[in-house]
Amino acid sequence: MQTRADEATRKLGQLIAAEQSQRSRLQMLEQYREEYAQRLCEATLQGVTRLVLRNYQDFLARIDDAIEQQRIAVQNSELNKKAGQDQWQAQNKQLKAIDTLSQRHDARERHRENKQEQKLQDEFSTRKYGIKDGADS
């Protein structure tokens, strides 16, 4: 059972790292788009041909498509991470339940053993003092 919990923990770590990587890529694309749009503004202020303007616009459209695809990838990563978290929580809950049952069993065993030991001590005491009482008679 511990192995399953460890595996769920490892997998969750991988899913979190994957989500962070996807978010980082998205931020990079958004930043690059912003910089490229700024270049377009600067270029239009200096004056550009239609062809150059069209190239800027086409490239911005491709960046926008890439950003949209990356947003979908981030959403998928979030869903995967959530599923991993749920799996991790389920494994840990099950492990804790088993630990609790084991602790209860151990406590019952200790209680039974203590009772048995007390019974043996009582019998020993009864025999020891019973024999003395019988010898005194």
Task: Provide an overview of this structure.
- The longest helix is centred in the last third of the chain and has 87 residues.
- This protein is 96% helix and 0% strand.
- The C terminus is likely disordered.
- With 137 residues, the protein is mostly helical.
- It is built from 2 helices and no strands.
- The chain is rod-shaped, with a radius of gyration of 36 Å.
- Helix 1 packs antiparallel against helix 2.
- The protein has one domain: Helix Hairpins (Orthogonal Bundle).
Summed up, what is this model?
By secondary structure, this protein is mainly alpha-helical.
Order of H and E elements: HH
Total DSSP E strands: 0
Q: What is the tally of helical segments? A: 2
Q: Class in CATH?
A: Mainly Alpha
Instruction: Give the tally of structural domains.
Output: 1
Distance between the termini: 64 Å
Beta-strand percentage range: under 5%
Apparent shape: rod-shaped
Largest sheet, in brief, is: none
Task: Identify the CATH architecture.
Answer: Orthogonal Bundle
Gyration radius over CA? 36 Å
Tell me roughly what share of residues is in helical segments.
Answer: over 70%
CATH topology: Helix Hairpins
| Average pLDDT level | 89
Judged by helices, strands and strand pairing, the structural class is mainly alpha
Q: Extract low-pLDDT stretches.
A: 133-137
Set out the fold topology:
Elements: H1 2-46, H2 50-136
Helix pairs in contact: 1-2
Name the features:
mainly alpha, Helix Hairpins, 137 residues, 0% strand, disordered C terminus
